[in-house]
């Protein structure tokens, strides 16, 4: 009897150890509020829109943050080794249906984001070691996104503002990426990333019907130093044989990251457009200092589209200045301003400016209410070929994390 009890206790102990070595966490964020959008296109055409729920985004409905649902797992393999995974999807709770139509799995107009689950935000497996670092394979944030948003007081929100400028035309998430993160030493962390798009190509002979002799690829590296209240970081990314995501005037007005507006004007506002850019280079440098009562930050960014000739080449660049002020244990105010410019063929095309103000009041550790204002201004330097655009958004809402 005593032996049986001893064996049972031993099995229970081993089961407890195994359970401690592996864990899975369910997490998420829901952002809901009311937003107002005003667009002034060349002082002639104006557009106003009120949204209840949150601004639409393939990365999750929300006014400040994209709503999401995620699963995170980690297993201790012993000897300092570990394995893990992250599966994170966007949540579109507005469901993209008409206001008077019941929410269904498919919108009556066949619109995107018609289902509750939107784009894959992250989906990768990882293998790491305490001495040698970690390797991640799969869909994940671009190093450019993580590095630049680290100096944005609001961390790249859905609402227009500074992020609409330093992320303009960039890729914030890659679906086929490999990322290596070295162990942090003396406050310094190095990360490198490479991505492909999986496009079939042909190296000789007839090109197959489903093959394209170009391929979108990127390579990037980031370095940051954190010591006490000081943070300094930099990022460099190079995309090669890149198919430009050309924006329209309406998309240009939205100022959202990834619509290719900066690429459109850079490679030819007058209509000279190259569908494939031989290379696009992006680099940024940032710094912040936490003074407890206020945290100032600065970020310089520069993106150059290198076309087949000068007519198809240009740059977007600027400087972000940000402040974070915790006015009390519950109330935090953030503000940012970005001034920049867009050039084509060494000629100024736009002077750009973005600003953002957000007040967030925490009701608990997981729930907060907020009010915010953001604007992005594109002032044309060549009125005969490009239009000036002003984009403004106002919002109030709440965020809950779990």
From TrEMBL:
GO terms for cellular component: cell outer membrane; pore complex. It is found in: Cell outer membrane. Residues 7-377 form the Porin domain. The keyword Transport applies. InterPro entries: Gram-neg_bact_OMP (IPR050298), Gram_neg_porin_domain (IPR033900), Porin_dom_sf (IPR023614). Gene3D superfamilies: Porin. It is a multi-pass membrane protein. Keywords: Cell outer membrane, Ion transport, Membrane, Porin, Signal, Transmembrane, Transmembrane beta strand, Transport. It holds the Pfam family Porin_4. Its main location: membrane. GO terms for biological process: monoatomic ion transport. Residues 1-20 form the signal peptide. One of its GO terms (molecular function) is porin activity. Homotrimer. This is Porin. It comes from Polynucleobacter sp. UK-FUSCHL-C3.
């Amino acid at each position: 009897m005593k032996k049986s009890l001893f064996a049972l206790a031993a099995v229970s102990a081993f089961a407890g150890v195994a359970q401690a070595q592996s864990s899975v966490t369910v997490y998420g964020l829901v952002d809901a509020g009311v937003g107002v959008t005003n667009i002034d296109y060349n002082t002639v055409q104006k557009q106003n829109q009120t949204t209840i729920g949150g601004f639409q985004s393939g990365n999750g409905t929300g006014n400040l943050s994209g709503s999401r649902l995620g699963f995170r797992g980690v297993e201790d393999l012993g000897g300092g080794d570990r394995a893990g995974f992250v599966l994170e999807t966007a949540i579109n709770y507005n469901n993209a249906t008409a206001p008077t139509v019941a929410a269904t799995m498919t919108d009556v107009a066949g619109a995107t984001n018609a289902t509750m689950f939107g784009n894959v935000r992250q989906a990768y497996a990882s293998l790491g070691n305490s001495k040698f670092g970690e390797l991640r394979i799969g869909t994940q944030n671009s190093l450019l996104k993580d590095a630049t948003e680290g100096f944005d007081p609001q961390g790249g929100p859905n609402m227009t503002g500074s992020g609409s400028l330093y992320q303009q035309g960039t890729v914030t998430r890659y679906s086929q990426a490999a990322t290596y993160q070295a162990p942090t030493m003396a406050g310094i962390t190095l990360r490198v990333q490479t991505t492909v798009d999986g496009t079939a190509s042909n190296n000789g002979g007839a090109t197959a019907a489903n093959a394209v002799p170009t391929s979108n690829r990127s390579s990037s590296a980031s370095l940051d130093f954190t010591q006490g209240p000081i943070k300094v970081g930099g990022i460099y990314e190079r995309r090669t044989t890149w198919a430009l995501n050309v924006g329209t005037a309406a998309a240009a007005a939205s100022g959202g990251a990834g619509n290719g507006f900066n690429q459109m004007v850079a490679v030819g506002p007058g209509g000279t457009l190259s569908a494939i850019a031989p290379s696009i280079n992006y680099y940024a440098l940032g710094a912040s200092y936490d003074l407890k009562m206020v945290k100032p930050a600065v970020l310089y960014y520069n993106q150059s589209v290198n076309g087949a000739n000068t007519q198809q080449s240009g740059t977007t660049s600027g400087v972000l200045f940000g402040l974070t002020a915790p006015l009390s244990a519950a109330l935090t105010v953030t503000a940012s301003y970005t001034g920049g410019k867009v050039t084509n063929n060494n000629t100024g095309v736009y002077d750009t400016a973005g600003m953002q103000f957000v007040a967030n009041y925490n009701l608990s550790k997981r729930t907060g209410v907020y009010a915010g204002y953001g604007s992005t201004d594109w002032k044309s330097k060549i009125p005969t070929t490009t239009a000036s655009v002003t984009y403004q958004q106002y919002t109030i809402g709440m965020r809950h994390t779990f």
